[in-house]
Amino acid sequence: MASIQLKTIKKSFGPVDVLKGIDIDIKDGEFVAFVGPSGCGKSTLLRLIAGLESITEGDLLIDETRMNDLSPKERGIAMVFQSYALYPHMSVYKNMAFGLSVAKKDKAQIKERVMNAARILQLEEYLDRYPRQLSGGQRQRVAIGRAIVRNPKVFLFDEPLSNLDAALRADMRVELARLHGDLKSTMIYVTHDQIEAMTLADKIVVLYDGMLQQVGTPLELYHQPANLFVAGFIGSPKMNLIKGKVIARDESGITLDIPHLKLGPVQFADAQRLEPGDDITLGIRPNDFSDKGGQAGELSGSVLLAERLGNETVVSIKAGDQIWTATIDGLNPVRLGDEITVTFDPQSIHLFDKDGKALERLNLSSLIHETLK
Amino acid sequence: MSHTHRARRHLSAGMIHAILLSYTLLALWPIFLVIINSFKSRKAIFRDPLALPNETSFSLIGFEKVLINSDFLLYFSNSLIVTVTALIISILIGAMAAWALSEYDFKGNTLLGLYLAIGIMIPIRLGSVSILNLVVSLDLANTLTALILVYIAQALPLIIFILSEFMRQIPTDLKEAARCDGVSEYKIFFQIILPLSRPALGTVAVFSMVPIWNDLWFPLILAPGEETRTITLGVQQFIGQYVTDWNSVLASLTLAILPILLLYLIFSRQLIRGITAGAVK
User: In chain B, what residues touch A46 (CB-CB under 8 Å)?
Assistant: First the structure.
């Protein structure tokens, strides 16, 4: 059980600055996911916390104690690697017991802890097998077991599920969620898979280019992304981000000029930041569009592509020289080249100023507001 | 189409096997001659060196002379002590050096690695005179220790070179997982890296062992004394300027093959794995 603070953490490899000052506060027992595209520094950040890389600048505190100069074993962490990193020449039991036996723990105690971990992870019948005799999912469970037996203050996961196939990944996701519920330890989880982050994490940290983009709950990130990067990164299919201009601002809201989009004045909490003539970017999530009509916002264009997923159909709509993505009813018989009109609630749009920073949305539902606070 | 293709594949496989087989015969021929003639009487050796021993020509006189009338067992144990000790120490030191070179980033790492590898290209015999001087001034002349030390120096470059290349291929995650597990660097080396390097260890053991066992040069100049002769040197006493006791020479050579063959069999399982390691995932 531990809280973690990162205070303006910086990391350089020679002349390359990989992390440019990261501040994160992680509460005891929290499940935090680091997400970002590859090369954003999320794995490096995890390795800094683990003690596998040295911190160039800044402070790392675990339970209020500065950890910068301590070795991994003194930090009370356990790490699970993407490649599992099981010792190939040791049985499952030995893999899990190895860390404890080098720490000269009592034999009976080791056995008890390993058996306990094996029970939690349903590995009891595989204890005598070698890693090469196990499937990917089982190997990953052994790797997690090796972390559990050490009873660490903090669990670190480095893309633990990305070597597994889709079905197994979904299963392991559920198991990890259950594990966090059982152990109630602090967990940090690095992933590039936003579904893993959204479903598992209490709090998501979005990193890009060595900088913190946003820290928040999954719903917060989805409904109020702080900037263009987060808006484009979270959510699938990707949010439509279309450039436009502010025409006017008055009491009724901001009037925008977006080609081919019918949209009345919209309201934002900090709308006064914008002046007529400012460049803005408008964002609409594809699933905020509907083909049922009856909403104030409207977009018309020709269908460029229709991907039928069954429960919904993802259509690419060409309007002028812009291409929009919208999800519509799965049974809509729309075909390539058809003209289509989709509608949306003007309240569902996101707006970003010329620096890519989001405007604060109004009328978010009370549920989201609660998680936002 | 596929028929001719398959036929051609069979043909080329047959060619390869024929070449390998003839090379094997060529390599085994002298050993075969040594072994059959060691079981023959002196006259029979000269009468027909290529004949197998039969009732009239069969004789164990060579083995009798070697085992009973000479210090063969002493030479034998000298060779064994020198080879095994030099092998164990050089592999242990070499593996540690290889681990340090492959795992740790320190100033002059590459330079040190190159320096250690130079020994592969420069034969240690070039330094025979200074080695002899050194051994004499250390008062180690005519001791097995002198031989062991020289052989360790001789074996190290190749061992370090091969092992450090091999250890570089051991996944970093494994070492880091161990570090997170609280395993000390020594334990990582002895309990994870060494067991995982077994194929490479077998390979370097074979490559280092054979030249040490067969060496005549250093025993001759550093330890020619009666008490410290190795088997290759011991055999020389049967080879005279005027008379060569072929029975004894052949018998002792036959016996000398045995231990090296045994060691080879032990290491070869690893060796073959070492050669093919990484070929298939």
Answer: none
